[in-house]
Amino acid sequence: MRICIIGSSGHYQYVLRGLHKDTRIVAIAPGSAGEEMTPLRKALKELDLHVREYEQYEKMIDIEKPDAVAINSFFGVNSKILIEMLQRKIHSFVEKPIAISFEDLNQIKSLYESVQKDVFFTAMFGLRYKAHFLTAKVLIDSGEIGKIRLLNTQKSYKLGKRHSFYTKRSTYGGTIPWVGIHAIDWINWFTGTKFLTVYATHSKIDNKDHGDLEMTALCHFVLDQEIFACVSIDYLRPEQALTHDDDRVRVVGTKGILEVTRGKVIVLDDKGEREVPLVAEKQIFSEFLSQIKGTGSCMVTPRDSILATEIALKARESADTGRVVEICQVL
Known about the structure:
This protein is of the alpha/beta class. The chain is built from ten helices and 15 strands. It folds into two domains: 2-119, Rossmann fold (3-Layer(aba) Sandwich), CATH 3.40.50.720; 128-284 and 310-326, 2-Layer Sandwich (Dihydrodipicolinate Reductase, domain 2). The strands form two sheets. It has a nine-stranded mixed sheet. Strands 3-2-1-4-5-6 form a six-stranded parallel sheet, with helices on both faces. Strand 1 (2-6), helix 1 and strand 2 (24-29) form a beta-alpha-beta unit. The two termini are 33 Å apart.
């Protein structure tokens, strides 16, 4: 199976970690003019993977005729590339959010409906595959904490010095769709419950000359059955912190409370507090390959990818306008 990588600005590492023995990367190309390909080029060299490189991804696709592509260019162009790949009926592993505008997202929705029998795509929600999140999912699905009533989620990142495309809404898309979308996906994955409304806020204050980039954000969601969920997002994690990110989830159920923190899963219920042994980590790109080969299934579906993006864009709209925004989700 032949794979091409378009862009070097997202989580292409998922591809490198999840390759199958009968799968190879044949070529790479930038997805945007001026995109720096050095990080990807270096990562491939470290793995002793020798691939062709093109200046335009369109030419690469025409010549190489890949079975699948990984799309991770500047966030504002990924939707255009995904639309083109769906039109060509090429399976796509695409950086999230899959679109930064409702117009592009609606085009992806409509196009996918017409080609879904022939092509598969998924967003790079690789955090689902971490051992601690998989463990939390197993416990929730087994009824360990009863019915979910409340979720608190956190995404905290180091800012560092970001590429210039992060400084413009037109190329970055916003911190809620880029960072907060992971937590939105967790909420959807853990509850399987319809989102009804969102009220969100975000702020660019103290963003260290990063233009439009929002440094902080909060989202409050109301889900069906009066389940409430919140997402806390920031780029204020100190540079001295041992890890780049700090992901946390607190799920409150009718029989107990589950917390995901620092790579651990803690359950508190009538039997006391205990740390739960973790299940094995998985690889999202490996599952993506199994899905398109017909030998397995990918946990993150096109529907999941579309839904999380739509909800993230609704939350960004709420933060931009200061209004509660309805989410007309169709399950």
